[in-house]
Protein backbone atom coordinates (compact mmCIF):
# COMPACT_ATOMS: atom_id res chain seq x y z
CA UNK A 1 0.00 0.00 0.00
CA UNK A 2 1.34 3.45 -0.89
CA UNK A 3 1.91 5.80 2.06
CA UNK A 4 -0.57 8.69 1.91
CA UNK A 5 0.23 10.22 5.31
CA UNK A 6 1.21 13.88 5.64
CA UNK A 7 1.82 16.32 8.46
CA UNK A 8 1.58 20.08 8.91
CA UNK A 9 2.91 21.84 12.01
CA UNK A 10 2.74 18.61 13.99
CA UNK A 11 -0.84 17.86 12.90
CA UNK A 12 -1.14 14.39 11.37
CA UNK A 13 -3.18 13.76 8.21
CA UNK A 14 -3.78 10.09 7.39
CA UNK A 15 -4.12 11.10 3.74
CA UNK A 16 -3.88 14.43 1.85
CA UNK A 17 -7.66 14.80 1.37
CA UNK A 18 -9.23 17.59 3.43
CA UNK A 19 -12.74 18.91 2.91
CA UNK A 20 -12.79 22.64 2.11
CA UNK A 21 -14.53 25.24 4.22
CA UNK A 22 -18.12 26.05 3.34
CA UNK A 23 -18.69 22.89 1.33
CA UNK A 24 -18.90 20.34 4.13
CA UNK A 25 -20.74 22.06 6.99
CA UNK A 26 -19.15 20.78 10.19
CA UNK A 27 -19.15 17.26 8.77
CA UNK A 28 -22.22 15.82 10.52
CA UNK A 29 -24.45 15.45 7.46
CA UNK A 30 -21.72 13.83 5.37
CA UNK A 31 -20.98 11.58 8.36
CA UNK A 32 -24.27 9.82 7.66
CA UNK A 33 -23.14 9.07 4.06
CA UNK A 34 -19.68 7.60 4.76
CA UNK A 35 -17.14 7.27 7.54
CA UNK A 36 -15.61 10.75 7.51
CA UNK A 37 -12.85 9.55 9.84
CA UNK A 38 -11.29 8.10 6.69
CA UNK A 39 -10.54 11.68 5.55
CA UNK A 40 -7.25 13.44 6.15
CA UNK A 41 -9.16 16.36 7.64
CA UNK A 42 -12.07 18.76 7.52
CA UNK A 43 -12.31 22.53 7.52
CA UNK A 44 -15.51 23.72 9.13
CA UNK A 45 -17.83 26.33 7.69
CA UNK A 46 -16.34 29.81 7.97
CA UNK A 47 -17.02 31.25 11.43
CA UNK A 48 -17.41 34.84 12.50
CA UNK A 49 -17.48 36.13 16.06
CA UNK A 50 -21.24 36.77 15.91
CA UNK A 51 -23.82 34.69 14.02
CA UNK A 52 -24.39 35.77 10.40
CA UNK A 53 -27.53 35.31 8.33
CA UNK A 54 -25.66 35.58 5.05
CA UNK A 55 -26.67 37.26 1.81
CA UNK A 56 -30.17 37.77 0.44
CA UNK A 57 -31.23 36.54 -3.01
CA UNK A 58 -29.58 33.79 -5.02
CA UNK A 59 -26.65 32.21 -3.27
CA UNK A 60 -25.38 29.71 -5.80
CA UNK A 61 -25.40 29.54 -9.59
CA UNK A 62 -24.00 26.83 -11.82
CA UNK A 63 -21.53 27.93 -14.51
CA UNK A 64 -19.65 25.95 -17.19
CA UNK A 65 -17.23 23.72 -15.23
CA UNK A 66 -17.89 25.50 -11.97
CA UNK A 67 -20.20 27.42 -9.71
CA UNK A 68 -20.65 30.88 -8.31
CA UNK A 69 -21.51 31.39 -4.67
CA UNK A 70 -22.61 34.38 -2.69
CA UNK A 71 -23.42 32.73 0.63
CA UNK A 72 -22.13 35.69 2.63
CA UNK A 73 -20.63 33.55 5.39
CA UNK A 74 -23.90 32.40 6.96
CA UNK A 75 -22.79 30.73 10.20
CA UNK A 76 -23.84 30.26 13.84
CA UNK A 77 -20.95 32.32 15.28
CA UNK A 78 -17.90 31.16 17.21
CA UNK A 79 -19.62 30.68 20.58
CA UNK A 80 -22.41 28.49 19.16
CA UNK A 81 -19.81 26.47 17.23
CA UNK A 82 -17.81 25.86 20.41
CA UNK A 83 -20.97 24.94 22.34
CA UNK A 84 -22.78 22.85 19.74
CA UNK A 85 -20.26 21.35 17.33
CA UNK A 86 -17.10 20.80 19.34
CA UNK A 87 -18.38 17.76 21.23
CA UNK A 88 -18.96 16.13 17.84
CA UNK A 89 -15.54 17.23 16.59
CA UNK A 90 -13.89 15.94 19.79
CA UNK A 91 -15.13 12.45 18.90
CA UNK A 92 -13.64 12.51 15.38
CA UNK A 93 -10.35 10.92 14.43
CA UNK A 94 -9.04 13.26 11.71
CA UNK A 95 -7.45 16.71 11.48
CA UNK A 96 -10.08 19.26 12.54
CA UNK A 97 -9.59 22.77 11.21
CA UNK A 98 -11.71 25.73 12.32
CA UNK A 99 -12.08 28.35 9.57
CA UNK A 100 -12.27 31.88 10.95
CA UNK A 101 -13.40 35.06 9.19
CA UNK A 102 -14.29 38.57 10.33
CA UNK A 103 -15.30 42.01 9.15
CA UNK A 104 -13.17 43.93 11.62
CA UNK A 105 -9.79 43.33 13.20
CA UNK A 106 -11.44 43.23 16.64
CA UNK A 107 -13.87 40.51 15.53
CA UNK A 108 -11.10 38.39 14.08
CA UNK A 109 -9.02 38.66 17.26
CA UNK A 110 -11.91 37.96 19.64
CA UNK A 111 -12.98 34.97 17.54
CA UNK A 112 -9.45 33.53 17.67
CA UNK A 113 -9.22 34.23 21.40
CA UNK A 114 -12.42 32.28 22.11
CA UNK A 115 -11.25 29.30 20.04
CA UNK A 116 -7.88 29.40 21.84
CA UNK A 117 -9.51 29.57 25.29
CA UNK A 118 -11.73 26.58 24.47
CA UNK A 119 -8.78 24.63 23.05
CA UNK A 120 -6.72 25.17 26.21
CA UNK A 121 -9.61 24.03 28.43
CA UNK A 122 -10.19 20.96 26.28
CA UNK A 123 -6.50 20.09 26.25
CA UNK A 124 -6.50 19.67 30.00
CA UNK A 125 -9.55 17.37 29.83
CA UNK A 126 -8.10 15.44 26.85
CA UNK A 127 -11.09 16.26 24.62
CA UNK A 128 -9.40 18.37 21.96
CA UNK A 129 -11.73 19.42 19.13
CA UNK A 130 -9.76 21.91 17.02
CA UNK A 131 -6.27 21.04 15.76
CA UNK A 132 -5.65 24.10 13.62
CA UNK A 133 -7.10 27.47 12.68
CA UNK A 134 -7.52 28.40 9.03
CA UNK A 135 -7.76 32.17 8.82
CA UNK A 136 -9.89 33.39 5.92
CA UNK A 137 -8.59 36.83 4.97
CA UNK A 138 -10.98 37.19 2.01
CA UNK A 139 -13.58 38.88 4.22
CA UNK A 140 -14.57 42.48 3.47
CA UNK A 141 -12.79 45.00 5.67
CA UNK A 142 -15.47 47.34 7.00
CA UNK A 143 -12.95 50.10 7.73
CA UNK A 144 -11.52 49.94 4.21
CA UNK A 145 -14.97 50.46 2.69
CA UNK A 146 -15.60 46.77 2.05
CA UNK A 147 -12.34 46.00 0.23
CA UNK A 148 -11.28 42.49 1.27
CA UNK A 149 -8.42 42.15 3.79
CA UNK A 150 -6.78 39.62 1.50
CA UNK A 151 -6.15 42.02 -1.40
CA UNK A 152 -3.35 44.20 -0.07
CA UNK A 153 -0.44 42.56 1.73
CA UNK A 154 0.10 45.30 4.32
CA UNK A 155 -3.58 45.34 5.34
CA UNK A 156 -3.59 41.56 5.69
CA UNK A 157 -0.36 41.72 7.73
CA UNK A 158 -2.15 43.40 10.61
CA UNK A 159 -4.72 40.59 10.86
CA UNK A 160 -2.16 37.80 10.55
CA UNK A 161 0.08 39.39 13.20
CA UNK A 162 -2.76 39.90 15.68
CA UNK A 163 -4.13 36.38 15.22
CA UNK A 164 -0.66 34.89 15.57
CA UNK A 165 -0.41 36.64 18.93
CA UNK A 166 -3.90 35.47 19.95
CA UNK A 167 -3.43 31.73 19.47
CA UNK A 168 -0.98 28.94 20.19
CA UNK A 169 -2.84 26.61 17.82
CA UNK A 170 -1.22 25.88 14.46
CA UNK A 171 -2.23 28.73 12.17
CA UNK A 172 -2.87 28.46 8.44
CA UNK A 173 -3.72 31.54 6.39
CA UNK A 174 -6.16 31.04 3.52
CA UNK A 175 -5.18 33.25 0.61
CA UNK A 176 -7.44 34.92 -1.89
CA UNK A 177 -6.60 34.55 -5.59
CA UNK A 178 -7.79 38.14 -5.89
CA UNK A 179 -4.72 39.30 -3.92
CA UNK A 180 -2.64 41.95 -5.69
CA UNK A 181 0.38 39.65 -5.39
CA UNK A 182 -0.30 36.21 -3.96
CA UNK A 183 3.40 35.33 -3.62
CA UNK A 184 4.09 38.47 -1.57
CA UNK A 185 1.01 37.70 0.51
CA UNK A 186 2.28 34.18 1.26
CA UNK A 187 5.77 35.48 2.13
CA UNK A 188 4.21 38.00 4.51
CA UNK A 189 2.26 35.19 6.26
CA UNK A 190 5.49 33.24 6.69
CA UNK A 191 7.28 36.32 8.10
CA UNK A 192 4.47 36.84 10.61
CA UNK A 193 4.80 33.31 11.94
CA UNK A 194 2.01 31.43 10.14
CA UNK A 195 2.50 27.66 10.15
CA UNK A 196 1.04 27.17 6.66
CA UNK A 197 -0.85 28.89 3.86
CA UNK A 198 -3.82 27.49 1.97
CA UNK A 199 -4.86 28.60 -1.49
CA UNK A 200 -7.02 29.45 -3.25
CA UNK A 201 -10.30 30.87 -2.09
CA UNK A 202 -12.85 31.74 -4.80
CA UNK A 203 -12.22 34.14 -7.69
CA UNK A 204 -14.32 37.28 -7.77
CA UNK A 205 -16.74 36.78 -10.67
CA UNK A 206 -20.15 37.73 -12.06
CA UNK A 207 -23.33 36.51 -13.75
CA UNK A 208 -25.88 38.84 -15.37
CA UNK A 209 -29.57 38.07 -15.89
CA UNK A 210 -30.15 39.72 -19.28
CA UNK A 211 -33.97 39.71 -18.88
CA UNK A 212 -33.83 41.54 -15.56
CA UNK A 213 -30.82 43.56 -16.75
CA UNK A 214 -29.09 43.08 -13.43
CA UNK A 215 -26.64 40.82 -11.67
CA UNK A 216 -28.07 37.48 -10.60
CA UNK A 217 -26.66 38.19 -7.13
CA UNK A 218 -27.93 40.88 -4.75
CA UNK A 219 -24.29 41.38 -3.75
CA UNK A 220 -23.34 42.04 -7.42
CA UNK A 221 -20.25 39.81 -7.54
CA UNK A 222 -19.87 36.22 -6.39
CA UNK A 223 -17.04 33.70 -5.92
CA UNK A 224 -16.13 31.27 -8.69
CA UNK A 225 -14.96 27.75 -7.76
CA UNK A 226 -14.78 24.30 -9.32
CA UNK A 227 -12.82 22.78 -12.24
CA UNK A 228 -12.97 26.09 -14.16
CA UNK A 229 -10.42 27.62 -11.75
CA UNK A 230 -8.11 24.61 -11.43
CA UNK A 231 -5.40 25.55 -13.95
CA UNK A 232 -5.04 29.05 -12.44
CA UNK A 233 -5.15 27.80 -8.85
CA UNK A 234 -2.55 25.14 -9.66
CA UNK A 235 -0.23 27.80 -11.12
CA UNK A 236 -0.62 29.90 -7.98
CA UNK A 237 0.08 26.92 -5.70
CA UNK A 238 3.21 26.20 -7.74
CA UNK A 239 4.44 29.81 -7.54
CA UNK A 240 3.77 30.08 -3.80
CA UNK A 241 5.35 26.68 -3.06
CA UNK A 242 8.55 27.76 -4.76
CA UNK A 243 8.68 30.98 -2.72
CA UNK A 244 7.91 29.89 0.85
CA UNK A 245 9.35 27.25 3.17
CA UNK A 246 6.16 26.68 5.21
CA UNK A 247 3.67 24.02 4.00
CA UNK A 248 1.23 25.02 1.26
CA UNK A 249 -2.26 23.55 1.13
CA UNK A 250 -3.61 23.50 -2.42
CA UNK A 251 -7.16 23.70 -3.65
CA UNK A 252 -9.35 24.75 -6.54
CA UNK A 253 -11.35 22.47 -8.80
CA UNK A 254 -10.13 19.12 -7.53
CA UNK A 255 -12.38 16.30 -8.72
CA UNK A 256 -10.08 13.32 -9.30
CA UNK A 257 -7.03 11.54 -7.89
CA UNK A 258 -5.07 12.86 -10.90
CA UNK A 259 -5.93 16.42 -9.83
CA UNK A 260 -4.62 15.67 -6.33
CA UNK A 261 -1.30 14.39 -7.67
CA UNK A 262 -0.97 17.52 -9.84
CA UNK A 263 -1.30 19.72 -6.75
CA UNK A 264 1.18 17.60 -4.78
CA UNK A 265 3.65 17.73 -7.70
CA UNK A 266 3.18 21.52 -7.75
CA UNK A 267 4.28 21.55 -4.11
CA UNK A 268 1.14 21.13 -1.98
CA UNK A 269 1.51 19.39 1.39
CA UNK A 270 -2.15 18.35 1.37
CA UNK A 271 -5.16 19.43 -0.71
CA UNK A 272 -8.71 20.57 -0.05
CA UNK A 273 -11.79 19.53 -1.98
CA UNK A 274 -14.74 21.94 -2.14
CA UNK A 275 -17.20 22.19 -5.02
CA UNK A 276 -16.83 18.51 -5.92
CA UNK A 277 -18.72 17.66 -2.71
CA UNK A 278 -21.84 19.09 -4.39
CA UNK A 279 -21.32 16.91 -7.47
CA UNK A 280 -20.57 13.70 -5.57
CA UNK A 281 -21.72 13.54 -1.96
CA UNK A 282 -19.28 10.68 -1.37
CA UNK A 283 -16.39 12.59 -2.98
CA UNK A 284 -14.11 12.19 0.04
CA UNK A 285 -14.42 8.40 0.26
CA UNK A 286 -14.17 7.94 -3.51
CA UNK A 287 -11.09 10.15 -3.83
CA UNK A 288 -9.26 8.25 -1.08
CA UNK A 289 -9.87 4.93 -2.86
CA UNK A 290 -8.95 6.40 -6.26
CA UNK A 291 -5.76 8.01 -4.93
CA UNK A 292 -4.59 4.74 -3.38
CA UNK A 293 -5.10 2.92 -6.71
CA UNK A 294 -3.48 5.70 -8.75
CA UNK A 295 -0.40 5.92 -6.51
CA UNK A 296 0.11 2.17 -6.82
CA UNK A 297 -0.36 2.28 -10.58
CA UNK A 298 2.15 5.15 -10.86
CA UNK A 299 4.52 3.31 -8.49
CA UNK A 300 4.53 6.20 -6.00
CA UNK A 301 5.43 4.78 -2.60
CA UNK A 302 4.88 8.00 -0.65
CA UNK A 303 3.71 11.53 -1.42
CA UNK A 304 7.07 12.91 -0.22
CA UNK A 305 8.61 11.28 -3.28
CA UNK A 306 6.73 13.55 -5.70
CA UNK A 307 5.94 16.65 -3.62
CA UNK A 308 7.10 19.77 -5.46
CA UNK A 309 8.81 17.68 -8.14
CA UNK A 310 7.71 20.07 -10.92
C1 LIG B 1 -20.72 27.33 -1.33
C2 LIG B 1 -19.32 27.68 -0.91
C3 LIG B 1 -19.09 28.22 0.35
C4 LIG B 1 -17.78 28.56 0.76
N1 LIG B 1 -17.59 29.06 2.01
C5 LIG B 1 -16.31 29.32 2.43
C6 LIG B 1 -16.07 29.77 3.76
O1 LIG B 1 -17.00 29.89 4.59
N2 LIG B 1 -14.79 30.05 4.12
C7 LIG B 1 -13.74 29.88 3.25
O2 LIG B 1 -12.58 30.13 3.62
N3 LIG B 1 -13.94 29.42 1.99
C8 LIG B 1 -15.19 29.15 1.57
N4 LIG B 1 -15.40 28.66 0.30
C9 LIG B 1 -14.24 28.46 -0.61
C10 LIG B 1 -13.79 26.99 -0.63
O3 LIG B 1 -13.40 26.54 0.63
C11 LIG B 1 -12.63 26.80 -1.65
O4 LIG B 1 -11.56 27.64 -1.27
C12 LIG B 1 -13.01 27.15 -3.08
O5 LIG B 1 -14.34 26.76 -3.36
C13 LIG B 1 -12.07 26.52 -4.12
O6 LIG B 1 -12.09 25.11 -4.06
P1 LIG B 1 -13.06 24.20 -5.01
O7 LIG B 1 -12.84 24.66 -6.43
O8 LIG B 1 -12.63 22.78 -4.77
O9 LIG B 1 -14.45 24.45 -4.56
C14 LIG B 1 -16.70 28.34 -0.13
C15 LIG B 1 -16.94 27.78 -1.40
C16 LIG B 1 -18.22 27.44 -1.79
C17 LIG B 1 -18.43 26.82 -3.16
TrEMBL record:
Keywords: Cytoplasm, Flavoprotein, FMN, Oxidoreductase, Pyrimidine biosynthesis. Its main location: cytoplasm. Pfam families: DHO_dh. GO terms for biological process: 'de novo' pyrimidine nucleobase biosynthetic process; 'de novo' UMP biosynthetic process. The keyword Nuclease does not apply. NCBIfam families: PRK07259.1, pyrD_sub1_fam. PANTHER family: DIHYDROOROTATE DEHYDROGENASE (FUMARATE), DIHYDROOROTATE DEHYDROGENASE (QUINONE), MITOCHONDRIAL-RELATED. This is Dihydroorotate dehydrogenase. The gene is pyrD.
